[in-house]
Design a protein that fits this description.
Length: 325
């Protein structure tokens, strides 16, 4: 991969759909029930896993959505293709919104275990709790621990403990849970320390946070993030996303996951971000009016600029379209 801006892939998520039962405020890929009911096709799945099998440094992948369990046949098919191409599946990521009892949890996880799944990651956050009562998260975890004999990641255990202080049998809006747990927005970010200041978080979780003028980010290029493959994602269309940069892709499993530097130069926005960061995008987008209140991070500025550039309908690397709608 010496002449590609995208190095060997190491570990990442295979997103079977952008559709989810939730529309969490922190969702990096802006998944939601409003997305079309579109799922990765058989042909793309085959291509994804055969591409993964030829990655020399790949440690494993995880399966995700949106919420992958909304379409069990597709999820089981993904496990089959992973086996066919000998690609290790580290875990399935699920929000457990479907888990209306311990028994349902046992049945669903047993079905998935029989299909070849060996471990799960269960999400627990104040954002998920706006849609999913704690009892579903709790019962899902208990059932998963039973079925997968401990191979369960609770993401995160600390937040799960905090959630247990809320009413177990109902959802809570974020302002409600913040009030109960005595948190402001800075406290929410601290509690969910893994949050990325991009995607939906950059639109919905900025209140009370320190903001900086766009100019502050001048000279901060994105080379290392765009070249990071330790937590990549491949979406249902086969697009590859590196770093924490959803909505921006120059590689697809149906073409080449490691395009040459020469090919990268065909993608103007990607190249600008690599060399100059989002302030470089501002220079080619005179229509953009920077928010006088500022931005919490350069990725926040990047998202707003890319939304504006998407409207011009001339940059293929701004994909998929549903991310920008
Ligand atoms: S459950 Fe996960 S995929 Fe769905 S909206 Fe929330 S963060 Fe996104
Ligand atoms: S500014 Fe944009 S390209 Fe750079 S790391 Fe953030 S999301 Fe990625």
């Amino acid at each position: 991969m010496a002449d590609s801006p995208i190095p060997d892939l190491i570990s990442g998520g295979i997103m079977l759909s952008y559709r989810c039962n939730n529309a969490c405020r922190h969702c990096l890929y802006r998944c939601s029930p409003k997305h079309e009911n579109r799922w990765m096709s058989d042909a793309t799945m085959d291509k994804v896993f055969s591409s993964m099998s030829s990655e020399q440094q790949l440690r494993g992948v995880h399966l995700a959505g949106g919420e992958a369990t909304l379409n069990m046949p597709v999820l089981k098919k993904a496990l089959k293709y992973a086996q066919k191409h000998n690609v290790p599946v580290d875990y399935l990521e699920t929000n457990c919104g479907w888990c209306d009892s311990f028994e349902t949890g046992l049945n669903t996880f047993t079905e998935l275990k029989d299909a070849g799944l060996e471990a799960v990651l269960i999400s627990a956050s104040l954002f998920h709790n706006e849609f999913i009562p704690f009892c579903r998260t709790r019962d899902g975890i208990e059932a998963a621990l039973h079925v997968f004999e401990g191979r369960v990641i609770i993401w995160t255990q600390e937040i799960f403990s905090q959630l247990s202080r809320l009413d177990h049998n109902r959802t809570h809006t974020l302002p409600e849970s913040m009030k109960i747990l005595d948190l402001d927005y800075n406290g929410v970010w601290k509690m969910h320390s893994y949050l990325t200041p991009a995607g939906r978080a950059a639109e919905t979780l900025t209140e009370g946070l320190r903001k900086y003028p766009a100019e502050n980010f001048r000279g901060d290029n994105c080379r290392s993030c765009l070249g990071s493959t330790g937590h990549f994602h491949i979406d249902p269309h086969g697009n590859l996303y590196t770093g924490h940069c959803p909505g921006l892709s120059i590689a697809n499993v149906n073409e080449d996951l490691h395009p040459s530097v020469q090919n990268m130069y065909k993608h103007k926005l990607y190249r600008i971000l690599q060399e100059k960061g989002p302030v470089g995008l501002q220079e080619i987008c005179p229509e953009f009016r920077a928010d006088k209140n500022g931005y919490i991070h350069k990725c926040h500025l990047c998202l707003e600029l890319r939304k504006e550039l998407f409207r011009l309908n001339k940059y293929a690397e701004l994909t998929p379209p549903e991310y920008y709608l």
